[in-house]
Amino acid sequence: MSAHAITRRSWFEADARTRIHGLVDAGSFSELCGPHERLTSPHLAVLDLPVAFDDGVVVGEATLDGERILVGAQQGEFNGGSVGEIHGAKLRGLLDRARDTRPAAVLLAIDSGGVRLHEANAGLIAISELMRALLGARAAGVPVYGLIGGSCGAFGGMGIVARLCDGLIMSEEGRLGLSGPEVIETVKGVDEFDSKDRALVWRITGGKIRRTLGEATLLVDDDLGAFRGGAKALLARGAPLRGLAALDADQAALAARAQRHADARDGLDIWRALGLPDAERLAMLDADAFNRIIDRAETA
Amino acid sequence: METFTLDLPSTPANGARALCGVVSSGNLEILVDTGHAPDRCRIDVSTSAQGFRDTWEAVLADAVARHPAGGLVLSINDAGATPAVVSLRLDQVLESLEQAS
Predict the structure, then answer these.
(1) ipTM of the modeled complex
(2) Which of A22, A141, A229, B52 lies at a 20 to 30 A Cα distance from A28?
(3) What percent of chain A has pLDDT over 70?
(4) What rounded mean pLDDT belongs to chain A?
(5) Domain over B2-100 is classified CATH 3.30.230
(6) Between A48, A50, A53, which is nearest B78 by CB?
(7) Domain presence at residue A58
(8) Rounded Cα gap, residues B22 and B76, in angstroms
């Protein structure tokens, strides 16, 4: 593993453009509505706050193993990757373009706490338009895959967007949820959720528990090449639109899960309840070793 | 926010477009576009830190004296970066142009 670590390029540490360049075929990315067009947030300007030339999101076209795809990546460092009016419109436009031009897939590198609260209703409307456009692309037969491994994870409205995707690729460090740990701690107190306890946060919202519960399709290591490999695997797998019966089955499975793990306070409780071997050690394993255990449990 | 524009002398750069940095606390982004006069560099600064124009002018004049930046327009969105970080980002984006040419 140490030899591998030298060649590893962290997804977590990379910015949005570096993530895209690590994902797609070299030299194939062409950006749409890029920073030189200066589509900046009018709301942040009114509030006298700094703007970004790309409003914290990068969208465009590229190829992955020669297949044409559309790709978007949120910039977690700019206002927590939050979805403002322009930011949301760029992602919505990307998904509308997918509906109209039928690429092989849309890849969304999510890194966001959700709606940009500064933009109030405009941000909320933007994220609802984004959800609608995502479902529109899927209905047109274009699979949409989310990739989560940044410092902001996928929370709030972007947590919902993530779960609307055909599949999710996550690293352990990537986190997925609705209300984030800090929000829960603020509202319910530190006894409910200690957001400073990173190991706890990862066991409850991180990629490993999401993979265990089936919400993440693939768990990968924190590495640009591993995310690219995951994207290629999902693209090869395809994602036919599922019918009403499958959705009803999903709903029943979720209800059963909520009942079965109703008393769980920690991801560890769930790993124990599922009877996984050495549940205490699962958090320490790399992605390959963890996946082997989960795959074995799923086929058993 | 405080905004101002500087027009500084510099040796001609190989004009190109570039972007570096991210607007986050203590950081900034610099967007490079092509301008007009080949021996002048125009710099538009938008910063959340009020009252540091003298410091900005010193850091920016130093950067365009060290690197060929004539014929370029630099647009800066700053969220309170220190002078050292501003200087580093300027080096980064101007060196990326030199390497690309």
Answers:
(1) 0.94
(2) A141
(3) 98
(4) 95
(5) yes
(6) A50
(7) yes
(8) 10
